[in-house]
Structure formats: C-alpha cells, structure tokens
C-alpha cells in the first residue's frame, strides 16, 4: 500500500464522517479474525477514522499465535513479542451497529508496516483466491449458516433460555421479542436474512443469509455473530456458537454454501453431470471433497469440534457427497424444480463456528480451484445415511469417516501441499502451532471439560 493509496483511503474516510456523525456514531471499531477463530478488535473515536483508514492501527504480530483462551503459542525462536502490523478497515463495508448505539464497524485487513500485505492475513488471502478465480472468469457466491444457543443468567453453565420442540413454534413465542430484534437489527444493518428458525436443541436458533462474494460472506458471518451476541445481551441472554455447548446435546454447525458462476450462469446447475452439475461444478466440488479431511484443521479447528462431528447429528461426519443428504459432508442442493439455475449449490456441512470464516473459504476455494485444474471427478453419490451401512459396504463403496480428532486433521493439513501452496508456509506453520498448543492444553481433558472451556469464547 503506497502513500497515494493511503491518501485515497483517507479521503474516503473523510467523506463518511458527517454521515456517520449524523447517525450518532462516536466510535469506530475494526476487526480481524485470528487463527483460533476469535474476532479481535481495536477502536478509535470517530474523528480518528481518516487516520485509521490511511495508516491503520497497530497490533502485535503475536496475534497469529493466539489460542482461543488468549494463551500465546509463541514460536520457539523467541519472536513472539517482537513485531507489529497494522489493521486497516475496509471502508466498502462500514456498518452502524444498531444493537450497540454510537458504534460503527468495518472489517479490517492486516498490512505490514512497510505497506506490504501481512503474510498471515486471512482476509487478504481470501481476496487473492477470489481474484485468481476471477482471472478464470469464475465467481463464487457463498454464505455461512449460523447456529447458536441462548442461555439464561450470567453463569458459566448452559441454562437453555427457551425450551419447546426442535423447530417448534412455541420457542418463538417464548423469546418472541428477542427473535424479532435479531431479525430487524440484522436487516437494519444491511444483512439479508433469508430464514430464521428454532433449531433442534433446547435454546438453539439458526439463521441463513443471502449468498455473497466470499469476502463479503465471511464479513457477514463476523457481523451476524457480533449482532446476535449484542442483541442477546440486551435481552439478558448469553450466546454460544460453540460446536458442542454441552456434551449431551446437538451441536452448532457453521455450514458453508458455495456456488460457482461463469458468464452469469450457475455452474452447479444446467450441466450434463449428476444432478445437473456442469463439469467445472463437479471438478470444483471434487477438489473440495478430496481436501476436506485436511481442511478440517481450519474448518473444525477445535478439540470441541470433534465432539460435534459425529454420525447421525446432521453434522456431515462422512467424507462423501449426496443429493440432499444431511449426513454427507457435502450436501448437493439443487433447489426446487424451476429454481435450480439460481438456487443450486453445494453445502459443506462438516465445518463449525470456531473456524475463522476467511480461512475456511480460502481453503475451500483453494481445494476447489485445484479440483478444476485437475478436471477432478466426484465418486458415486451416497443416498442413504452412511451410518446405516455396515463396515463391509462402507469399505466396498469407499465411504470413510472424516477425521475423528483434531490430531488427525492437523497432521493431514500439515502435509497438504495444495493448501500450503495457497496459504503460504508461514500461515500454515502458525495455524499448526496454535492447534498443537490446543491439543496440549486438552491432552487430559474430559469431553465435559472441553465443552465447558470452549462454551463462551467465540
Ligand atoms: N446442528 C447441526 C450441526 O451441528 C445441523 C442441523 C442442520 O442440518 O441444520 O451441524
Ligand atoms: Mg441447522
């Protein structure tokens, strides 16, 4: 980023000041998501926004090694506390935070002090993946589904704030004002909520948003979660996005929907491959499926993730794909007859909300891009619950479980050359260091202890 670019950013910020002030904004926050999936923030008084936009705000480079509990898995070379980076807000996504009066927010990107991209910035990485696909005339549309539970009281135990049946109307009545405020606050902030419902478990809700380009989809995921938390607090509720809030219940997923487009046409529909996939749509999906086990180190990045990722919980614990199969890691969604051209997409079900959304999408795009380059083909789709098949049939059909532990996923990730080429070795090493540290932390922990330690972080 050179001085001319910085001056342009300053001018853009100056042009926003009066409008933000007129809306009562007095403070401006910018965030990045670290390798453990925690959104970290710095804020300035509104009058400082032009400086923030031009020069960013400092943050230690040690944040690439922050674990979810704020322990620093510092590199053994002693460089942990040495070094600085600048968080620069992207002013194309400025949002006034309606549940936090006086505040505005924009997602940040991380730059080195010399104006070069910070080599471990996940948002810049995702932008590069998107640009590489655009050079092949391919655009991606994506969305994160968000699932969460609300708990009553300030204690660390999970006390479901609403009962009622899974998907039951009565749960909406129990928390009617809260549910309304979640929907309206997001809408006021420009988030297009497509659907909202009470989920399976006690106190659990889910919402889905309209598909966007990947960087925007990841930004939206950060914004939605911050908003859901803030609205909850205003209603005296505590929010958890953890994949396993308590070990006996159904978990929270963070499914990712992906479709690929060229010349205005959806490559997940209208083709001559199975269920209407085009050959590029299939090859992209096949690349994703091939790298999913390794990708779990970013998509299901906590020890708690593997408490959720079990069969017969609709979490997609098997490395297979199938039409509308909620037990397959890749669920092909064609939409209703007549809507496929715009609705068809691939849903990645196995990932959860401990994940840094920029890293997950960067990994998925890298895997899919490699699949397209190789002209990869999908195996036979699976049209039953894999858990209903016996071992011999699973083996015969080549249907395997995804990693069942973080240990397994990290080893596959560290050895995955495609993901390393996309992420760069420094970022891969930092991610592995954070995961190894979490594995150490929980080496003797029981599932209940893991769930409790992870419950209120993200
Ligand atoms: N809660 C499930 C999960 O852990 C997902 C349920 C659904 O398919 O929406 O992913
Ligand atoms: Mg759901």
What key attributes describe this structure?
458 residues, alpha+beta, Ubiquitin-like (UB roll), Creatine Kinase, Chain A, domain 2, 6-stranded mixed sheet, 20% strand, globular, binds glutamic acid, binds magnesium ion
Mind explaining what this structure looks like?
This protein has 458 residues and is of the alpha+beta class. It folds into two domains: 3-118, Glutamine synthetase, N-terminal domain (Ubiquitin-like (UB roll), Roll), CATH 3.10.20.70; 129-454, 2-Layer Sandwich (Creatine Kinase, Chain A, domain 2), CATH 3.30.590.10. It has 15 helices and 16 strands. It has helices spanning 3-22, 49-55, 122-134, 169-174, 176-188, 214-234, 279-299, 305-308, 340-343, 357-374, 391-397, 406-414, 417-423, 425-441, 447-454, and strands at residues 27-33, 39-45, 57-60, 84-89, 95-96, 103-112, 139-144, 146-152, 193-198, 204-209, 237-240, 256-262, 265-266, 318-323, 328-333, 345-348. The strands form three sheets. Strands 1, 2, 3, 4, 5 and 6 form a six-stranded mixed β-sheet that branches. Strands 7, 12, 13, 14, 15 and 16 form a six-stranded mixed β-sheet that branches. A four-stranded antiparallel β-sheet has the order 9-10-8-11. The two termini are 31 Å apart. Bound molecules: glutamic acid and magnesium ion.
């Amino acid at each position: 980023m050179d001085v001319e670019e910085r001056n342009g950013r300053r001018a853009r910020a100056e042009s926003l000041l009066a409008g933000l002030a007129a809306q009562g904004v007095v403070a401006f926050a910018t965030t990045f998501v670290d390798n453990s999936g925690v959104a970290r923030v710095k804020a300035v008084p509104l009058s400082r926004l032009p400086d923030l936009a031009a020069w960013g705000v400092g943050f230690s480079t040690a944040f690439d090694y922050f674990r979810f509990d704020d322990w620093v898995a510092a590199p053994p070379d002693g460089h942990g506390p040495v070094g600085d980076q600048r968080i620069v807000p992207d002013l194309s996504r400025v949002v006034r935070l309606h549940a936090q009066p006086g505040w505005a927010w924009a997602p940040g990107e991380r730059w080195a002090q010399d104006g070069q991209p910070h080599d471990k910035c996940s948002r810049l990485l995702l932008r590069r993946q998107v640009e590489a696909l655009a050079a092949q005339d391919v655009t991606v549309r994506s969305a994160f589904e968000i699932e969460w539970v609300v708990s009553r009281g300030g204690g660390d135990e999970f006390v479901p704030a609403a009962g009622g049946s899974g998907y039951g109307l009565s749960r909406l009545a129990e928390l009617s004002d809260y549910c309304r405020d979640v929907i309206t606050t997001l809408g006021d902030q420009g988030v297009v909520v497509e659907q909202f419902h009470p989920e399976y478990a006690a106190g659990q809700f889910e919402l889905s948003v309209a598909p966007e380009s990947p960087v925007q989809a990841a930004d939206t995921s950060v914004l939605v979660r911050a908003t859901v938390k803030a609205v909850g607090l205003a209603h005296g509720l505590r929010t958890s996005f953890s994949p396993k809030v308590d070990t006996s219940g159904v978990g929270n997923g963070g499914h990712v929907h992906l479709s690929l487009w060229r010349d205005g046409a959806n490559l997940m529909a209208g083709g001559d491959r199975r269920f209407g996939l085009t050959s590029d749509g299939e090859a992209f999906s096949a690349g994703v499926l091939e790298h999913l086990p390794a990708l779990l180190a970013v998509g299901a990045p906590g020890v708690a993730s593997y408490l959720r990722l079990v069969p017969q919980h609709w979490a997609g614990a098997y490395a297979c794909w199938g039409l509308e199969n909620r037990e397959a890691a890749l669920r092909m969604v064609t939409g209703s007859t007549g809507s496929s051209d715009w609705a068809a997409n691939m849903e990645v079900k196995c990932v959860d909300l401990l994940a840094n959304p920029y890293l997950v999408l960067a990994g998925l795009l890298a895997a899919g891009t490699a699949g397209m380059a190789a002209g990869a083909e999908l195996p036979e789709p699976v049209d039953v619950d894999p858990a209903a098949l016996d071992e011999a049939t699973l083996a015969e059909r080549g249907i395997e479980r995804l990693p069942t532990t973080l240990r397994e996923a990290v080893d596959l990730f560290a050895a995955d050359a495609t993901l390393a080429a996309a992420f760069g070795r420094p970022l891969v090493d930092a991610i592995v260091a954070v995961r190894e540290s979490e594995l150490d932390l929980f080496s003797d922990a029981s599932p209940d202890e893991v769930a409790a330690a992870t419950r209120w972080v993200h």
